[in-house]
Amino acid sequence: MEQLIGNNLASVAGFRPELVLTFGSIALLVLDLVLRRSRSRRALLAGAAVIVLGLAAVLLAAQSTASTPLFNGMIASDAFATFFKWIFLAAGFLTVLIVAQGDDYPSPRVGEFYGLLLAVVLGMFLMASATNLLTIYMSIELVSMVSYVLAGFRKSDRKAAEASLKYVIYGSVASGVMLFGMSYLYGLLGTFDVLAFAPKIAELSATTGAAGAATKLALVVAVVFVSSGVGYKIASVPWHMWCPDVYEGAPTPFTAFLSVGPKAAGFALALRFFLGSFAGPMGANGMAESIAGIPWPAVIGVLSAVTMTLGNLTAIAQTNLKRLLAYSSIAHAGYTLMGLATLSALGMQGVMIYMLIYLVMNLGAFLVVIVVAEATGSESIFDYSGLVHRHPLAAIAFGIFLFSLTGLPPFAGFTGKWYLFYAVIERASGPAGFWYGALAVVGALNTAVSLYYYARIIRAMFLEAPHVTDRVAPKLGYQLMLGAFSAAILVFGIWWAPIVEWSQRSMVMLRG
Amino acid sequence: MFGPNNVLAWATFLPLGGAILIVLLTALRYVSGLSKHALDQASRAIALCTSGLSLVAAIYAWSFYDPNAAGMVVAGKASGVQLVQRAVWIRGFNVEWFVGVDGLSISMVLLSGLISFVATIASLPWWSGAKDREMAGMVEDDGHAGGAHGGHGHGEAHPKHFSVRMVPGYMVMLLLLQTGMMGTFVALDMFLFYVFWEVMLLPMYFLIGVWGGPRKEYAAIKFFLYTLAGSVLMLLAIIGVYYNSAGASLVDGSATEHTFNLLELAAQGHAGQFASAAPILGFEFAKIVFVALFIGFAIKIPMFPFHTWLPDAHVEAPTPISVILAGVLLKMGPYGILRFNFAILPDATRWAANAIAIFGVINIVYAAFVCLAQKDLKKLIAYSSVSHMGFTLLGMAAMTPTAISGAVLNLFTHGIISGMLFLIVGVIYDRAHHREIARFGGLAQQLPEYTAIMGLAFFASMGLPGLAGFISEFMVFSGSFPVYMTYVIISATSVIITAAYYLWAIHRMFLGKLNETYRGFPDLNWRERLTLYPLGAIAIVLGFYPQAILGSINTTLHVLVQNVRL
């Protein structure tokens, strides 16, 4: 008992950024009340949120990246989690910057938003480091619950209310299914500790004959059920249905956050779950094999192919930019799943790099949507016609983000895609290579399909004459952000050595 | 500053520098009160200078290139590659900035520099009198009168000329395109090659899509989708080749597990590295990679049945862009096939040679027949390009020294001649605002100088002895005859069909009674002379002295063919 308590107390040292976020979140809610009548409350609250995130960043930077289990193995502190935590902090920080300038969140309630946003960031921190079924469930629920509120933040907006309700319903089903799966897993393996799964699975599958096959089947079903929680977060088929409606209905800055933050958190969790518990350690060639020969790569690979194809094909018909980007984000979840399906070091690195680059390019794309919506009040593709004449910077930046999302060099999206494809091709010459080869071909063809709908936006912005004459004049802050995002995309498309080296260093994950 | 070890970098990046300069000037316009007119003129001047200097660098490279020099040593053998510049780009990824030229690329570097410069000249609005300017739609205004901002024409009769619409943007795109083309030809690192290859796509899309004709949006996206579909397959193949390559070393001596170095890969391919690689998708590795790469390049050539984007792109593109498209971009296909497929995958090349030859014959004959049916002059010329690129395919597939030299010479001569042809179409389109062959007639009386130049270009393209086209066609036919006798005989019929469609076009457009609508048309102006005469001169000189190009390409190509045939 004393040992347990001692471990918990010692663990606090490795939990400081999370503590800052916890107390920061509460502090902001209090501050919101204190500053009720202050004139500069918008600026002060945004400043406070930035300070909390900054403090968390400082503590995160100071923290050791050595792999250690915290709180008696409930969560892990390792380089892998730290990599993703930086992504979450960046997503939170940039969202605060966008919200502070915009008018999506009215001043009286903006403090509430910041407080809840910090809570989501905390939830994502936990998702990236959870190593116990309980913490996995808790962290996913923390992110979900708060997201429901934030999606429906504008109470008077019918679309937002609808979005929020849909989000709740789909979310509850997904987490119910996940809990059901977890109960199976617990029944089969007798432990909540994800890191202790591997030996038990090997033990279980040692049973031969019909009983062994039945056990394996039960295990696969259980894991697929558990994955519904993750699939829901990353918006992969068949748990993607909420995505277009919520993206469309939620206030755009939060949509932007949703598309990069929780998605990255979902992938972090999935990488840890599958690579840590269902695959053996990586060999000298950087490839892991799934324990007991359960075909996880096949399951994930099929999901990946279906997700990207469905996302891309559905995106073609969209005329609302937020819905289009929602389907595009489903497609990108599909591409990224390719990296997970390889169960290899390269695939893992590919996912990490992709999520980092995706953060910049997708936030950038949504920022342009915000900028245009502020000027025209519309998210329809028709109101993007002739944007290059109405605001060249916004149009050119959007062009860069869209080409980057397509995966064309010399933009950073190409770098990300290259690593994912490389991971798949590496597997294509090994056993079951045929299916990896097929997956790579599906991915490549999907890239060409995605160009079609991205180019529709490009065409509207550059090739068509303006239908509407509203001049788009973004605030200076937005312009600076657009410039910085575009520059980052260009620089990382030509010189991505820092990203690769950082992700390389961060591939250390706590194992059981 | 400017020497043999960096001349290729200059040739590649001067246009990029110009583009950046124009962007900065444009940004300056928003800050200061720089007038639109001044900005337009400055952009034109910058584009002319940088693209001209890039041509100078290309000529310098060509003059420095010595076909008999041993060049860089790769895998213990002299490769003949010269003017090499290497630096590590991203170490963790084994990619290098690695450029150089051998006999395969030197003629393409020269062609690319030349055609780019000609296209830049052709992008200027240069007209004699105010009335003529008005007629061509080149009257510049400062953006009022509803023109420049919408990017749409100022009159009902005909849209505004591309050369006065959003000039800085046009010039930036043109210069980026030039950088992409030059980079593709000089890159010897597979990854670098791919980056440059893709970099060409974006400017081309915008140049067709923004400054093109009535169906520009359709043509632009069709071009983009076709090429991208090809290049993603190519990307997979490139990754596959990289992953299955053996180790090599970077320029700083550090050893790598795999390599992107194209010369190293060629040496490994020659030694059988890829023939023994594990199969992919149930097929032999070398074969499936060959097919993926080949389709990517074949779309660019364009080879039947992937050619349907070309007529659309050509018809809608503004004249200088058509010139670049036909003069340089199509050449990347055969160049890539020789650089990748032939050099790296010799076994698969032997396996596929017959099929390539058949597709070459289809290109030659089928496209020639299609030409006969064209009503639009530009479409006719576009399909004649498809037909002429077939000669290169046939010559490559035959793999005899004469045939392959003819094939690559054909790239150069076709680049020059098709450039001329598209400029000629541009001349008449600027005046008449349509290109329908049947609506012209008797133009020879009104435009004698134009008619003379047109005759030169048409006859050169037809393959009249004494002009450039004849030499390359003859070399392809005579070189392929021992290998593919039947194919050569079938292809030879195209000579008659080609003569038929050209002569028929001349007959309908230039001879007979002058169509009174066209009385009063001005003959060639200086902008047009500056672009047409140099190309015409080259077409004549190469007709008598093909050695100027052959001398620098033969050595490398003969070694390449020998390696493949082994």
List keywords for this structure.
heterodimer; A: 512 residues; mainly alpha; two-stranded antiparallel ribbon; 75% helix; globular; B: two-stranded antiparallel sheet
Explain this structure to me?
The complex is a heterodimer of chains A (512) and B (566). Chain A has 512 residues and is mostly helical. Chain A folds into two domains: 220 residues; 228 residues, no CATH class. In chain A, 75% of the residues lie in helices and 1% in strands. Chain A is built from 20 helices and two strands. Chain A has a two-stranded antiparallel ribbon with strand order 1-2. In chain A, helix 10 runs antiparallel to helix 11. The longest helix of chain A is centred in the middle third of the chain and has 32 residues. Chain A is globular. The mean pLDDT of chain A is 90. By secondary structure, chain B is mostly helical. Chain B has a domain of 221 residues. In chain B, 68% of the residues lie in helices and 4% in strands. Chain B is built from 21 helices and six strands. In chain B, the strands form three sheets. A two-stranded antiparallel sheet of chain B has the order 1-2. Chain B has a two-stranded antiparallel ribbon with strand order 3-4. The longest helix of chain B has 32 residues. The radius of gyration of chain B is 23 Å and the shape is globular. Chain B starts with 6 loop residues before the first helix and ends with a helix. About 3% of the residues of chain B have low confidence. At the A-B interface, helix 17, helix 18 and helix 20 of A face helix 6, helix 7 and helix 8 of B.
Biggest sheet details of chain A = 2 strands, antiparallel
Oligomer kind = heterodimer
Mean pLDDT of chain B equals 89
Strand fraction of chain A: under 5%
Question: Structural class given helices, strands, pairing of chain A?
Answer: mainly alpha
Strand arrangement within the widest β-sheet of chain B reads 1-2
Shape of chain B: globular
Strand arrangement in the largest pleated sheet of chain A: 1-2
Content-based structural category of chain B: mainly alpha
The figure for the number of domains of chain A is 2
Mean pLDDT of chain A: 90
Show unreliable segments of chain B.
142-156
